[in-house]
UniProtKB/TrEMBL annotation:
Alphabetized InterPro entries for the sequence: Aldolase_TIM (IPR013785), Ribul_P_3_epim-like (IPR000056), RibuloseP-bd_barrel (IPR011060)
Enzyme class, first EC level, given as a word: isomerase
Protein name: Ribulose-phosphate 3-epimerase
One GO MF term: D-ribulose-phosphate 3-epimerase activity
BP GO terms, sorted: carbohydrate metabolic process
Superkingdom to which the source organism belongs: Bacteria
Native source organism of the sequence: Rhizobium skierniewicense
Documented EC number(s): 5.1.3.1
Keyword set, alphabetical order: Isomerase, Metal-binding
Amino acid sequence: MPHKTWINDLPKDRLIAEFSVWSADLVHLADDLARVDEHVDILHIDVADGHFAPAMLFFPDLVAGVRKLTKKPIHVHLMIADSIVLSQIEQFADAGSDLISLHVENDAVADEALDLLERRGVAAGMVLRVETPVERVRKYAARLDFLTLLGTAIGVKGQGLDEKAGERLGQARQIIETSGAEHRIVLAADGGIREHTMPVLRAAGAQTVVLGSLAFNAPSLPERMTWLHAL
């Protein structure tokens, strides 16, 4: 996929549909991805080392396998310790990732990581934990293609949306608008995504939400996506 140009092809007049592979049927992953492919704008793959985040997820070979199954952009979200960020960027870039997000909390290696993503021709994203002040991303904003705010504690499924999630998205929107970036920066919300929270996140400025069970377990995915696109 051409360097970063795919971002400009993402919808601008509706919510971008980002589907989390963590919520797919992992035993029958190829079948489940084929089932949802027509509805997906971006596939989201979480990576966690069991230290930075409590879960242990996923690995470069999985991304390489998914890359063979779909032409949709793949967004890898790194939830890992500073010491392995650079090596993991290399491996996930080799596996076919179109977008790799590190955490703003990886600030010890953040500039070097963003330099590496630029050299590899991979779109650059950053993610903020729910407890991290949004202001910390300002110094990196102009270098980003994606900015994702977590609305729940990192790496744990099934939590309710933090009450400040909407306010934090508004702060991030302001930072993006004043960043001076000449390219498109997409603002994303991840965590606590439910039918009753989606309108709140959209109204606060989210351009994409990371859909898990709301997509993969929908009684009728076409109906769910019609509702999503109407927000």
